Automatic annotation (TrEMBL):
Biased composition (Basic and acidic residues): 66-78, 84-94, 100-110, 116-125
Gene3D superfamilies membership: 2.60.40.790
Keywords of this entry: Cytoplasm
Ranges for region Disordered: 66-130
Organism: Arabidopsis arenosa (Sand rock-cress)
GO annotation terms (biological process): protein folding; response to stress
Subcellular location: Cytoplasmic granule
Domain CS residue range list: 132-221
Superkingdom in the source lineage: Eukaryota
Descriptive protein name: CS domain-containing protein
UniProt cross-references to CDD domains, sorted A to Z: p23_NUDC_like
Length: 295
């Protein structure tokens, strides 16, 4: 992704920019940013402008998801109520048997069981496929799909494989043996768009199509170590990879910015003019000579 210094030679900005980012409307904020970029540079005329904007939209959505998760985690930590603190202090000041003061209870001297101390989860650096490698299988991903590769004895036939793919769970292994994978997905998949096959009679390959195709999975099957999704390496972004709603919004913004650069009406202005023409055609008897319309 290009950085600002790679776009055009910096010039002093003459256009005030006072937009505020609203998490509930990220595309509205992006439209205002593109408006400033369109007036101050030729960035939108670059051949790679489309890919860079798409990548920025995806990165913004990922940051929003991470921010929401952190916010929910923070809100789930309930501070100790002041009344509870005061009550604890009063309880500690109650008269105690002198003998009990001299001999602390044995239970208080016992060492804390190390198993009771919850260790922070370790996030791993993803492999080249943006997943992780394990002893019995490996997995990788892009924004749309997850791929799982399971080595099996050479000469294994498809009829010897058992594979069950559900919306939130995967079971796969060899018949007559313990399952190699049996667990819940990080997120749901589209079962009708998933399939598996045997490659060279020595590798079971499972392809999963994600339900949410704007999210990186932290793990494939529940119980696996989590990867650091900030270190994934996404493939070159394409406008066609976006969902229809986001794609339409990005295309509209890019069209409007190009129109403004050439001094032509934006899509909204074109729509208003078309509506006005239609209204005038439907009302030929009305006099519009002194009418004033907002652009």
């Amino acid at each position: 992704m290009a950085i600002i210094s790679e776009m055009e030679e910096a010039r002093p900005s003459m256009v005030p920019f006072s937009a505020s980012f609203d998490p509930s409307n990220p595309l509205g904020f992006l439209e205002k940013v593109l408006d400033v970029i369109g007036k101050e540079s030729n960035f939108l005329r670059k051949e790679t402008a489309e890919k860079e904007i798409v990548a920025a939209v995806r990165a913004a959505k990922e940051r929003l998801r991470e921010a929401e998760k952190k916010k929910l985690e923070k809100e789930s930590v309930k501070p100790t109520e002041p009344m509870e603190v005061e009550k604890a202090k009063k309880d500690s000041l109650k008269a105690t048997d002198p003998m009990e003061l001299e001999k602390p209870k044995e239970e208080s001297l016992k060492a804390t069981d190390p198993m009771e101390v919850e260790k922070p989860k370790k996030e791993n650096v993803p492999n080249k496929g943006n997943g992780l490698d394990f002893e019995k299988y490996s997995w990788g991903q892009n924004l749309q799909e997850v791929t799982i590769n399971i080595p099996v004895p050479e000469g294994t036939k498809s009829r010897s494989v058992t594979c069950e793919i559900k919306k939130n769970r995967l079971k796969v292994g060899l018949k007559g043996q313990d399952l190699i994978i049996d667990g819940e997905f990080f997120n749901s998949v589209k079962p009708d768009d998933c399939f598996w096959n045997i490659e060279d009679q020595k590798m079971i390959s499972v392809l999963l199509t994600k339900q949410d195709q704007m999210e990186w999975w932290k793990y494939c099957v529940k119980g696996e170590p989590e990867i650091d999704t900030q270190k994934v390496e996404p493939e070159t972004s394409k406008l066609g990879d976006l969902d229809p709603e986001t794609r339409a919004s990005v295309e509209k913004m890019m069209f409007d910015q190009r129109q403004k650069q050439m001094g032509l009406p934006t899509s909204d202005e074109i729509e208003k003019k078309d509506m006005l023409k239609k209204f005038m055609a439907q009302n030929p008897g009305m006099d519009f000579s002194n009418a004033m319309f907002n652009s």
